[in-house]
Automatic annotation (TrEMBL):
InterPro entries: Acyl_CoA_acyltransferase (IPR016181), GNAT_acetyltra_YdfB-like (IPR027365). It holds the Pfam family GNAT_acetyltran. Its EC number is 2.3.1.-. Keywords: Acyltransferase, Transferase. It is an enzyme of class 2 (transferase). GO terms for molecular function: acyltransferase activity. This is GNAT family N-acetyltransferase. The keyword Transferase applies. It comes from Anaeromonas frigoriresistens.
């Protein structure tokens, strides 16, 4: 994270809503939920 910010990159975090561990880690690093989107899955 520090490398990104020191070099002009803006890191972001993306994970599924049910991934509680990843969400907790993101919050620990100071990330906040900015938006939510839905994915649809279907077989062809």
């Amino acid at each position: 994270m520090k490398y990104c910010k020191d070099n002009g990159y803006e890191p972001y975090w993306e994970c599924m809503e049910k991934n509680f561990g990843s969400r907790a880690l993101a919050e620990k690093f100071g990330y906040n939920k900015e938006f939510e989107y839905y994915l649809y899955e279907f077989d062809f």
